[in-house]
Design goal:
Helix content is 0%, strand content 42%. The protein has 263 residues and is an all-beta fold. The chain folds into two domains: 91 residues, Immunoglobulin-like (Sandwich); 113 residues, Immunoglobulin-like, CATH 2.60.40.
Amino acid sequence: MSGGTFSYLVSDLDPGSYHSFQVETVKGDATAMNSSSVEQTTPLEAPMNVAVTNLSSEVLTVTWDTPGDSYDAYNVYSVSGGIYTLLGTTDAGATSFAISDVTPGNDVQYAVMAAWDDDGDPETDPIVSDRVSTEVTTVPVGKPASPGDVSVAADGAHALVVTWTNNSSIATGFTIQRQNADESWSDVGTADAGATSFTDSGDEVYSASAYSYRVIAKGDSGGSGGSDSDPSGSGIGVTDYGSGMVYTGAPWDDADDMYHKID
């Protein structure tokens, strides 16, 4: 073999693993001195499906899927003109990061990188993955932040109280929806801006029955979300048993998917 530049591919290495390599020249039975060592640590597995979700004029969330291994932290960056600015670092195993410093009408992009401090030495850099970026997204104008902490509690046999946390300063009101047996959603009422509760006592609220609700904040340019794929928040409540009531099936009566009065 004549002189020149050569390479050798080493595969099947574990992510975040340390390796040291040397090259030895061999000719017949003779060997030369080994080369100096080259050291390399393989990068971590990068986060997957990095995206912007829960997008509103006031707050958004960067989400991602984690690889099989759990690392110490995930670093979240804003991306502008090829420059990455660190916004924060999550705890181990996190899959989301909320960002409230947004400007309606601006285009935004973010990136996430896994990090692992393998030796606990503050003098050495942690092992990291590649940074994975979101698509460029435009912050909407006039779209309120989604309500949070939606919960439901029984108020007797024929009413449920839905409560939530208002996360918006621009919401003009709220729409409360109940889930139907076919998993679609129907409006059951509205609440004014600033409200944090609603009582559903409609004709379709039966005793000893489970119901799921969600709350949508209304704004000048539309609601905060609430489609089947991206609900703004939901909770499940079960009404009390009432006198003169009987449950006709388990878990639902095949005839009409409901509980029945017998009085």
